[in-house]
């Protein structure tokens, strides 16, 4: 792990994660919880400092060009081939193309992202905002955190997340495109709302919202019932984002099959 002072990586003046017994910290947790309730997400702009972002990009950009796994797939919004009770040609099952270039945690170990991912006050803060008893980093050397690059014409298409929430950190914004679009509360645990999903995929949902994040922003997103996508990137500059994966139980690892599917290698 990184020997550098975490205060050179994260803005702990604005976001006092290391001072949990202060009013400022409690106010931050309250604001994030309110944002989650209202929007299904919260954002912390400028969470990672500019110098740390530059360090990460200096390491990651050449690796994205040479070593990244290109993950390309056709999928529907559910990432499942069939849904019981829906005919195969139902518009909710329409398949779209997703493509990105992925670096694994072992390719960026020991840097600023590693330091942020394993920072115990951040993990505790995320658990508090989610109203969970605790969260834990993964033991998986590949899946703990990833860096994803999207080049011109590449996109992450409409989907629901399989996990309860997603934690991302934008490292580089593209020249154009690459916007985060989402539709809060499109379905519930009781109501899959297939007709509403079909309207969304046909571009007929007026409730879709668009978010343009600045580099350094931490975004925490409840994506299980909120459909979301990243629109195609335009221009020469890649959209580059880090994804942090935590679980409510310690010691989690992906299977060799899962790692091969996500990253092109078992370990």
Brief account:
This protein has 267 residues and is of the alpha+beta class. Helix content is 25%, strand content 24%.
Word description of this protein:
- There is one protein chain.
- The protein is an alpha+beta fold and 267 residues long.
- The protein contains 6 helices and 15 strands.
- It has helices at residues 23-39, 50-66, 112-117, 120-130, 194-201, 256-263; strands spanning 41-44, 69-75, 96-103, 136-137, 145-150, 156-159, 166-172, 176-177, 180-183, 209-211, 218-221, 227-230, 233-234, 239-244, 246-247.
- The strands form 4 sheets. It has a 7-stranded antiparallel beta sheet with strand order 1-11-7-14-5-3-2. It has a 4-stranded antiparallel beta sheet with strand order 6-12-9-10, with no helix packed on it.
Count of distinct strands = 15
Classification by helices and strands? alpha+beta
Between the first and last Cα atoms, what is the distance in angstroms? 19 Å
What's the tally of helices? Answer: 6
Strand content: 15-25%
Helix percentage range: 25-40%
SSE series: HEHEEHHEEEEEEHEEEEEEH
Radius of gyration computed on alpha carbons:
18 Å
Low-confidence sequence ranges: none
Average residue pLDDT: 92
Strand order of the largest sheet: 1-11-7-14-5-3-2
The coarse silhouette is globular
Largest sheet, if any?
7 strands, antiparallel
């Amino acid at each position: 792990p990184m020997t550098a002072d975490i205060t050179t990586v994260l803005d702990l003046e604005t976001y006092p994660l290391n001072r949990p017994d202060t009013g400022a910290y409690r106010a931050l947790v309250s604001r994030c919880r309110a944002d989650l309730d209202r929007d299904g997400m919260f954002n912390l702009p400028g969470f990672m400092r500019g110098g740390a972002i530059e360090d990460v990009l200096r390491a990651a950009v050449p690796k994205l060009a040479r070593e990244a796994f290109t993950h390309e797939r056709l999928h529907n919004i559910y990432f499942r081939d069939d849904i019981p009770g829906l005919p195969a040609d139902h518009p909710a099952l329409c398949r779209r193309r997703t493509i990105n270039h992925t670096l694994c945690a072992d390719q960026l170990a020991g840097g600023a992202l590693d330091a942020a991912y394993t920072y115990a006050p951040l993990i505790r803060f995320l658990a508090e905002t989610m109203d969970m008893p605790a969260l834990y980093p993964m033991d998986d050397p590949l899946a703990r955190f990833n860096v994803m690059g999207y080049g011109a014409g590449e996109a992450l298409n409409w989907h629901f997340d399989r996990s309860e929430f997603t934690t991302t950190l934008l490292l580089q914004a593209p020249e154009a495109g690459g916007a985060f679009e989402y539709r809060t509360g499109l379905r519930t645990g009781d109501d899959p709302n297939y007709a509403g999903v079909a309207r969304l995929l046909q571009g007929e949902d007026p409730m879709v919202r668009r978010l343009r994040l600045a580099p350094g922003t931490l975004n925490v997103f409840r994506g299980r019932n909120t459909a979301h996508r990243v629109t195609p990137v335009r221009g020469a500059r890649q959209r580059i984002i880090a994804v942090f994966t935590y679980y409510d139980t310690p010691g989690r690892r992906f299977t060799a099959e899962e790692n091969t599917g996500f990253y092109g290698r078992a370990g």
